[in-house]
Amino acid sequence: MDTAVLVSPDRLWSASEVLRRPNPVPPVSGVYGWHFDASPFSGLAAAQLLYVGIAPRHMATRTSSQNLRKRVRYHFRGNAAGSTLRLTLGCLLGLELRRVGSGKRMTFGKAGEAVLSHWMAEHARVCWVEHPEPWTAESELIARLDVPLNLDQNRHNAFHPRLKELRARARRRARELPVTS
Questions:
Q1: How many CB atoms sit inside 10 A of residue 64's CB?
Q2: What is the pLDDT of residues 131-151, one digit of tens each?
Q3: Which of 4, 97, 151, 158 would be 174's cystine partner, CB 3.0–4.6 Å?
Q4: What positions does the domain GIY-YIG catalytic occupy (predicted)?
Q5: Minimal CA–CA distance to 142: which of 127, 154, 129, 159?
Q6: Is 179 helix (H, G, I), strand (E, B) or coil?
Q7: pTM higher than 0.90, yes or no?
Q8: Which DSSP string corresponds to 36-79?
Q9: What is the Cα–Cα distance from 46 to 32, expressed in whole angstroms?
Q10: What element of type H or E holds 158?
Q11: How many whole angstroms separate alpha carbon 104 and alpha carbon 173?
């Protein structure tokens, strides 16, 4: 896969564009890349590709029902329990991770998720490329690109240990706190 379409895309899309109707993101399989005009953490450069993702995920027994449109929209307006990108960004921004509901899911709570959504609306931009089997390209992309916000398959990245510890610390702290609604 040509990495230039993600690293130097012709167009980047904002939250307001992706969340409106008609929606510009196609409901198909593909790869998406996240760019930020402000760094979520000191030591990370802004105005570059920091994270790549795929939709759908390919699992041993099936393929998920996700597509580019669903995943990109979810990253912009979902919560940390369903988006590793949101979990990472919230941890980097210093938001408090909490156990919610039954206590098994972790999010930044309504207020924290709103802060994160606002930050992403201001600073995150996304691009995508259609791909019939994106799971076949994911490993190669992560190996070839400097995407410090990806953890899976990205141990070679210099930021990996720091990000992994930051997320682990947030999860440990969340387990110490009471469950919120």
A1: 14
A2: 999 999 999 999 999 999 999
A3: 97
A4: 47-168
A5: 154
A6: coil
A7: yes
A8: ESS-SSTTS-SSEEEEEEEESPB-SS-B-S--HHHHHHHHHHS-
A9: 17
A10: none
A11: 14
